[in-house]
Each structure stands twice: as structure tokens, then as C-alpha cells.
Write a structure and sequence with these properties.
The chain is an alpha/beta fold. It has an eight-stranded mixed beta sheet with strand order 12-11-10-13-14-15-16-17, with helices on both faces. It is globular, with a radius of gyration of 29 Å. Bound molecules: 1,4-dihydronicotinamide adenine dinucleotide.
């Protein structure tokens, strides 16, 4: 026995009791304890039945994911389950909280399962690039039928007790203490002399299935389609399909082999990296974990434009009332109109009911004049992006908003410290940089000013989480983490056009990698924004200036780097643009050359990683994994590569450094030379992940 697993004797019923805080993860020691405990119980005449139950807030919540980075040793789930299944004493799993992954697999080895009213059940392995490896792909289809099982295993999404009972995954729903409920159920099973048929031998739901084979394939294909470009969902479908025609023991053997293969693969490593990155992201250096957040029960958003509207929707969607404030009635009505339309079309598409849409819209109250923010606990400013306007707005906020309120800015690029300095309370000022469309994109860069107080940071981070965002704390610099790294990518795309590539070629390389192309993205955002700001500061960008001079601002004018048919957002290559690019190169005496896809890929990605390295060294991001989160949740970076900094570590920093030297040399651009920290890490064989 191990310290995490004990046997409690409830008058002849053995409770195999797991106590491995915080979430009863199924680590090696717990697995050993379960096996040894079960052997003891089976050998003792004292016990007539067994209950598997857990201490604390949940049943076994899943594997200990840290083990996945090593060779997995010790007792396996299959060994434990075969003891449960061979037992002549009834074995009952009493589930409260969650039974995910290995937790559900162990429960499915038991003869009976009962669940607390609000318990959840799932096989989320696919989210880590894996298939269930402890029999889940074979027992779940036997429990609930192959069609629903393949859907659950590919999506990775859990079900609740009501559905689990209906599907036959559990036998009963209980209220109160799992141990007491489990013991009571075990006594009932004994009294009723219930037959002990392990799921492995229960093929009743499979017997009906061959007729459903076409449906199975159809459901699996649709579920895979929702997870485009990933390997694990296909592996899940394949493994579950063995339930039709591969004997149980052979299928279990193949399942384990496939699990081990995926575990060692790049996709699973990247997805596991993201899993840990998200957990690490909540730890903010310099803010004690027990810092008491401020109370936020009323929120005001200033500016009902593109971003203000989306931000207000994010709060309303989470059930938090919000006041949306504009300078005048007309602008307010326009902003509210856009929000109403968004909700109406979400309801029309069936994403939410029209009652939900009405309820959410009802939580947004429009108001005119900055004074309406006086009583808010949090004000988020989303007005025009110029320093003069921001300063004016913040000094007004300082005058009207109650003391102790948090004043946040949604600025994309501007200096949050300079904005804070216009108030008498810089400790209460912070950046909350949402991404467009703000009601959908998960990223929120939390910009920590020089003087931002720890409790303001803690409050805003937890509030961002409560509205379903992924907060990443960053420091003050031009463009923060995401937009600052985006710049070299856009510059490189534009330079490659001048040197010989065409928009469709550059974007195709990015799309193949799994992201929207930088030029199509430019068309979406609008090329005129950069053009106007270049004109103000006397800068040029030859191709983009030429496009804008011809009125090609992007999607909004039906033409940019591409042309767009009426109302469509699909970019169509335009020979007129190709000619304009070739002509611009000629005017600048640039001899055009051919680019291969590999070079384009490197030039889109390596300079961006280089900027990430500088950001890391300057302490603008606290860890490389935070930079990855920014790109994954704010810019659609493909999850299967784990984010730019993780990808760089996988490629090897020496290779990145050498390629950057070549790019800098070709471009005659000092800024493209490897950042000092990249040089040092490449020299010492280090990684961004290990950079402290
Ligand atoms: P927008 O032009 O769509 O909206 C700005 C709104 O603010 C306008 O409706 C305007 O009437 C209102 N406004 C101006 N002064 C005001 C005042 N004193 N009080 C109340 N309302 C006022 O601009 P957008 O795109 O929503 O941008 C807003 C902020 O969000 C900017 O700082 C921008 O850099 C930032 N941002 C924009 C993103 C985007 O993709 N558009 C992404 C992330 C941040």
C-alpha cells in the first residue's frame, strides 16, 4: 500500500480510498496503491464488496501529466482494471467532482459506477494530442455505444451525470458523501445478487452497432473535421473503431502502443507544453498568490466602437452587467446597434437561444458622457488610439471616477505609464489589451505599468479569467508582446514582395503552416491605418503606399493585396497587384528573384522569434511560454507547434541564429541580427524554456 491509497473497513465493505491532493491525479504511487490494495481486499475473507472512492473535491481527475515526459513505469491502468474485472466481489466506483482520462478508465474497470449529481465524465486525452491509453477506447463504446463514444473521445468534452445515466455510463445518481453512497450501493448489489459483468465482456451495445457502422464513420469524420490538421483525433477514431472487429485484449494492446507513439510525437509534446503554459501563466512574478483582489461588481466601457462593443459583450456573455459609454447619443446608438445585430445573428445561427441573446443584450446599458463611469469599480477605455485623446480621457476619469476603482486602457501600442502619469492614481491604472473580435478572441494582454499595484494586477487577471479570457501579464513597450512581434512578420512579408515573391505565394506558406497569411490579414485589418500613420511620421512602405494611393485599403474597399467579390471575404489573387509589385521593384532597382517555400517560412517566423527573444530578455514577458500563449490565443498560431518560442526550442536555437545571420545579411538590416540572448543560448546549447 502507499500513503495515497488506504483501505477503510465499513463493516465488511472495503473502501479503496484515494487521497492524493489536490485533484487525486493517478500518479505511479496511486496506481501501485490501487493494485496492492485490491490484492489485499481480494485475499481477505473479511470483505464482501469493494468501493473505489476519493477524498477532497474530486474523484481521480486523470493522469499525472508530468509523467508523460518520462518513460511511464510501474503499474498500469490495465493491470488494476484486470483485478477489478476478475473480482468475484462487486466493485463500485463512487464518483464525485470529475472522472477524466485515467480516472474514468479506472471507473470503467469497476462493475458498477454511481455518480454525484454534478459529477462530470470525459476522455480529454485528445486535447493533449493523445488517445486514451488505459482501455478507454474499448470500454467507453461498450458502456455507451460506439457512436457516442467516438464523438466524446474525439471532442474530449465531458458529459454530466444526467446524460451519463441516460447513456448507461453510470448506474445511479447519488447525493451526499461518496463513501456512504458507495457502501450503500455495494450492500444493495450484494443483497440483490446483481450479476457482475465487466464492461470488457458486455458487448450488448456493440452487437447493435455493425448496422450503425456508416453512422459511426460519419460522426467520426465530422468530429475530426472540427479539429482540423491534428493527428490525435484521427488516431482516436481509429482506436475506437477496433471495438467492432478486434478482440478486446488485442485492442487494448494496440491502444497502448498507439498511445506511447503519440506521446513521443511532436504534436502531443506541443499540446502538453500549452497545458503547462496556461497553468504557469496564472503565476505573476511579484504578486503573492494570496493577494486579495479588489471587489468588482460594476464595469464601465468607454467607447462603443469595434473594440468597446466586443469588450462589453464579453462581460455580458459572462453575466456581468456593463455600462457602455460614448461621447454622443448617435455614436452610442450605432455601437449598441452593432451589438444587437451580433446577438441576433448568433441566435439566428443557433449558437445561443433568442432568450439568451435578449438577456445578454439587456445586461449592456448605454450612457452618454464620461461622468456616467463615476460609480464603476472598473473602467475600460477603448477610445481612439492617439496619445492626446488617451491623456485627456484619463485625466477626466481621474476627476470623476470614485477612489479605489481600476482604470484600464485597451491601447494596442501606447505607453501605459505615460497614460497613468496623467492621473493622480497611477497605482490603479493598468492595460487590458483585448484582441479583435473581442467577444471571441481569448487573449487579453494585461499590461503592468511601472506603478500598477499588485492587488490591481491580481484583480484584473482573475476578472479576465472569469469572462473566459486567457490573461497574459506583459510589461510596457511599443506594441507589448503580440503586436511588437507581429511587426517583423509584416515587414518581412512586404520585403519579400519587393524582392520577388507574390502575395498569394507568401500567404500560401503561412496557411500551410496553419495561420492566416500576413497579407490577407493586412487586408482584413485595413491597409489605410498604417498608411495614415506612416504619412504622419514621414515613413514609407513602397508597395503598401502604392496600393493605398489606388484606394486599395483591403476588404473594406473590396481590394487590397487581393481583390474581393461583393460581400465576400475570400481573397482572390489580382494580376493588377502582381503588375504593381513588379513595377515597384523595378522603380527601386531591385532585381527580382525566386523564393522557395522554405525561405518564405523562415523569413515569416524567425525574425518574429528574434523579437520574442528580445522581449524575454527585457523582461516584457516573464517566461517564454507566456509569449507562446499570446500567439496561440491572440493570433491563431497553430497549437500543434506549441507557439513560436516552443517551436524555436524544437528547431534548435543554433539553427535559428544561423538563419537570422543570413537574413540580416541579405536584407542589410541590423535589427534582424540575432538578439544577444539568442546568441548566448545558442552558444550554450540552452533553450528559451530554460531562460530565467
Ligand atoms: P473605434 O474607432 O472603432 O472606436 C472608438 C470609439 O470611441 C468611437 O465610437 C468613439 O466615438 C469613441 N470615443 C472617442 N472618444 C471618446 C470619449 N472621450 N468617451 C467615450 N467614447 C469615446 O476604435 P477601436 O478599433 O474600437 O479601437 C479602440 C481602442 O482599442 C484603440 O486604442 C485601439 O488601438 C485598441 N484596439 C483596437 C483593436 C482593433 O483591432 N481595432 C485591437 C486591440 C486594441
Amino acid at each position: 500500500m502507499t500513503t495515497e491509497v488506504t483501505i477503510l473497513n465499513h463493516d465488511g465493505i472495503a473502501v479503496l480510498f484515494v487521497d492524493n491532493p489536490p485533484v487525486n491525479a493517478l500518479g505511479a504511487s496511486v496506481r501501485a496503491g490501487l493494485r496492492d490494495g485490491m490484492r489485499k481486499i481480494l485475499a481477505s475473507a473479511e470483505y464482501k464488496a469493494v468501493v473505489l472512492a476519493c477524498a477532497g473535491r474530486t474523484f481521480i481527475s486523470g493522469a499525472d501529466i508530468r509523467e508523460f515526459d518520462r518513460e511511464m513505469a510501474g503499474v498500469g491502468i490495465n493491470e488494476i482494471n484486470s483485478l477489478f474485472e476478475k473480482s468475484e466481489k462487486p466493485v463500485v466506483a463512487a464518483i464525485h467532482g470529475v472522472a477524466f482520462g485515467g480516472g474514468l478508465e479506472v471507473a470503467m474497470g469497476c462493475h458498477f459506477r454511481i455518480g454525484a449529481k454534478d459529477a462530470q465524465y470525459g476522455q480529454p486525452e485528445v486535447k493533449l494530442g493523445l488517445i486514451p491509453g488505459g482501455g478507454g477506447t474499448q470500454r467507453l463504446p461498450r458502456a455507451i455505444g460506439p457512436v457516442r463514444a467516438v464523438e466524446m473521445i474525439i471532442s474530449g468534452d465531458p458529459i454530466r451525470s444526467g446524460e451519463a445515466l441516460e447513456l448507461g455510463l453510470i448506474d445511479e445518481i447519488f447525493e451526499g458523501d461518496p463513501v456512504a453512497a458507495g457502501v450503500a450501493f455495494a450492500r444493495k448489489a450484494l443483497a440483490e445478487k446483481r450479476a457482475l459483468v465487466p464492461l470488457r465482456d458486455n458487448t450488448s451495445k456493440l452487437a447493435a452497432a455493425p448496422a450503425d457502422h456508416a453512422l459511426f464513420k460519419d460522426v467520426a469524420a465530422k468530429a475530426i473535421g472540427r479539429k482540423r490538421g491534428l493527428e490525435a483525433p484521427m488516431a482516436c477514431a481509429e482506436a475506437v473503431s477496433w471495438c467492432f472487429d478486434v478482440p478486446f485484449d488485442e485492442a487494448i494492446k494496440r491502444e497502448w502502443e498507439l498511445f506511447v507513439k503519440l506521446k513521443a510525437g511532436a504534436e502531443s509534446k506541443a499540446l502538453r507544453h500549452i497545458f503547462f503554459a496556461e497553468r504557469a501563466g496564472s503565476k505573476i512574478p511579484g504578486v503573492a498568490p494570496d493577494t486579495k483582489p479588489r471587489k468588482v461588481s460594476s464595469v464601465a466601457v468607454l467607447g462603443a466602437g469595434t473594440m468597446g462593443g466586443g469588450i462589453a459583450m464579453s462581460f455580458a456573455n459572462a453575466g456581468i452587467p456593463v455600462r457602455l459609454i460614448e461621447v454622443g447619443q448617435e455614436a452610442l446608438e450605432r455601437g449598441l446597434g452593432v451589438i444587437r445585430k451580433n446577438y441576433e445573428s448568433a441566435a439566428a445561427r443557433g449558437g445561443i437561444t433568442s432568450e439568451t441573446a435578449d438577456k445578454r443584450f439587456g445586461l449592456i446599458e448605454g450612457a452618454v458622457g464620461i461622468e456616467s463611469s463615476a460609480e464603476a469599480d472598473l473602467v475600460i477605455e477603448a477610445v481612439f488610439e492617439t496619445m492626446a485623446v488617451k491623456k485627456e480621457v484619463f485625466s477626466k476619469l481621474d476627476a470623476v471616477v470614485k477612489p479605489g476603482a481600476i482604470l484600464a486602457t485597451n491601447t494596442s501600442f501606447l505607453d501605459v505609464d505615460a497614460i497613468a502619469a496623467t492621473t493622480s492614481r497611477p497605482q490603479d491604472v493598468i492595460g487590458m489589451h483585448f484582441f479583435s473580435p473581442a467577444n471571441i478572441m481569448k487573449l487579453c494582454e494585461i499590461v503592468r505599468g511601472d506603478k500598477t499595484s499588485p492587488d490591481v494586477l491580481a484583480t484584473v487577471v482573475s476578472l479576465a479569467k472569469s469572462i473566459g479570457k486567457t490573461p497574459v501579464v506583459v510589461g510596457v513597450c511599443h506594441g507589448f508582446v503580440g503586436n511588437r512581434m507581429l511587426l517583423p512578420r509584416i515587414q518581412q512579408a512586404s520585403r519579400m514582395l519587393l524582392e520577388g515573391a507574390l502575395p498569394q505565394q507568401v500567404d500560401a506558406v503561412a496557411t500551410k503552416f496553419g495561420m492566416m497569411g500576413p497579407l490577407a490579414m493586412g487586408d482584413l485589418a485595413g491597409l489605410d491605418i498604417g498608411w495614415r500613420s506612416r504619412k504622419d511620421s514621414g515613413l514609407t512602405s513602397p508597395i503598401e503606399d502604392a496600393l493605398c494611393e489606388r484606394g486599395r485599403f483591403g476588404q473594406k474597399t473590396g481590394a487590397g493585396y487581393y481583390r474581393y467579390e461583393n460581400g465576400s471575404r475570400s481573397p482572390i489573387p489580382d494580376p493588377e497587384v502582381d503588375a504593381l509589385i513588379v513595377e515597384t521593384s523595378r522603380e527601386l532597382n531591385i532585381t527580382r528573384r525566386t523564393f522557395d517555400d522554405g525561405e518564405i517560412h523562415q523569413r515569416l517566423i524567425y525574425p518574429l522569434i528574434n523579437e520574442g527573444a528580445r522581449i524575454l530578455e527585457e523582461g516584457i514577458a516573464s517566461r517564454a511560454s507566456d509569449i507562446d500563449l499570446v500567439w496561440l490565443h491572440g493570433y491563431g498560431w497553430p497549437a500543434r507547434t506549441g507557439g513560436p518560442m516552443f517551436l524555436a526550442d524544437q528547431i534548435g536555437l543554433t539553427e535559428i541564429r544561423n538563419a537570422l545571420y543570413a537574413i540580416a545579411e541579405a536584407d542589410k538590416d541590423e535589427l534582424l541580427r540575432p538578439a544577444p540572448v539568442l546568441e548566448r543560448l545558442a552558444e550554450s546549447g540552452g533553450t528559451f524554456a530554460s531562460f530565467k
